[in-house]
Amino acid sequence: MLLLLTLLPWPARAGDATLDWRTIDTPNFQLHYPVGLDAVAYRAARLCEEAHRVLSPYFARRATQRVQVVLTDFGDSANGSASALPYPHINLFAAPPKLDGNLNDYDDWLRLLVFHEYVHILQLDQTRGLPALINALFGGIIAPNQNLPSFTLEGGAVWLESATSARGRIHSAIFRGFLRVHALAGALYDIDAITHVPLTWPGANVWYMYGGHFIDWIARTRGEQVMGRVHDAMADDVIPSRSTARCSRPPARPSPRSTPSGRPRRSPGPRPSATPSRPRA
Ligand SMILES: [Zn+2]
After folding, report:
1. How far apart, in whole angstroms, are the C-alpha atoms of residue 192 and residue 114?
2. Between 20 and 30 A from 153 (CA), which of 133, 161, 213, 216?
3. For residue 196, is it within any domain?
4. pLDDT per residue over 207-234, tens digit each?
């Protein structure tokens, strides 16, 4: 009898099956949310369009289709995620950051979250040539920029969340303090360690901490369009090892063309250094 019961069909369920879902349509997004989160959802939808307007000029091409956004409130974790496969989509958690964590340096936590995740869409949803043809024929199955090291992807998102707001993790005193401790202790991680996940503190946070300041340095010394050109160069790449070789080449010096306009940039203050006299922050 028990065996027969296990064979009965049951509806598939994930999360809270009692939620009543709604969708907000905007020109470039569809935002799905459960009833009760209406106020946050409408604000997030407006922020998505703002992110599209402000961030797209940093990249060679815009998202290939409307981005699907799911807003949920299942816990207290301040987080989100984004992927270009099988279609561009973002998950947003409707929870503000803790004040004692490394996400605590924000002017508008929802704006920062939306902007950070949309940067990932613009980084990953860049395809041309053979990858674009494959995706057109078989659906979204290949995203060459996904092969970039996580510290470049997260670093780029941390850089742009900060460059287009008054705060963000580049300006975070906690992040700069953590980096300063590593520098003063002579314990800065090498690129091989931050390409993966160090077994010691701060673990995967090096992608955001080291990566953010690394990309910020590239943008300041080589121009704000450089990362967009890197992602464009990767867009037709179907061999991951070739991607690494491309990234090892030094980027070109900035061109005199105008830079994209976001919010006014806030001075990030003193720059990191490996020496005690110029402490890394
Ligand atoms: Zn991220």
Report:
1. 30
2. 133
3. yes
4. 999 999 999 999 999 999 999 999 999 9
Ligand 1 centre and the CA of 271: distance in Å?
23
pLDDT digit string (tens) for 74-114?
888 889 999 999 999 999 999 988 877 778 788 899 999 99
CA 7 to ligand 1 center in whole angstroms? 41
For residue 157, how far is its CA from the centre of ligand 1 (angstroms)?
Answer: 6
Strand 80-83 with 274-275, pairing: unpaired
Q: How far does residue 8's CA lie from ligand 1's centre (Å)? A: 41
In a domain, 14, yes or no: no
- Say how many Å lie between the CA of residue 42 and the centre of ligand 1: 22
Expressed in angstroms and rounded, the spacing between residue 154 Cα and the centre of ligand 1 is 5
CA of 79 to the centre of ligand 1 (A): 9
- Ranges of residues in the chain with a pLDDT under 50 are 256-259, 261-281
User: What's the 237 CA to ligand 1 centre distance in angstroms?
Assistant: 22
Which single residue is written with the structure tokens 């995706």?
A: 135
Query: Does residue 124 belong to any structural domain of this protein?
Result: yes
Q: Could you tell me if residue 191 is inside a domain?
A: yes
Of 159, 267, 259, 265, nearest to 216 by C-alpha is: 159
Whether the predicted model's global pTM rises above the 0.85 cut? no
Instruction: Tell me how many domains the chain contains.
Output: 1
pLDDT at residue 261, as a whole number: 46
Interatomic CA distance for residues 46 and 276, integer angstroms: 45
List the CATH number of the domain containing 161.
Answer: 1.10.390
Directed axis angle between helix 150-163 and helix 109-124, to 10°? 130
Ligand 1 centre from 155 Cα, in Å? 8
Q: What is the reported pLDDT for 271?
A: 36
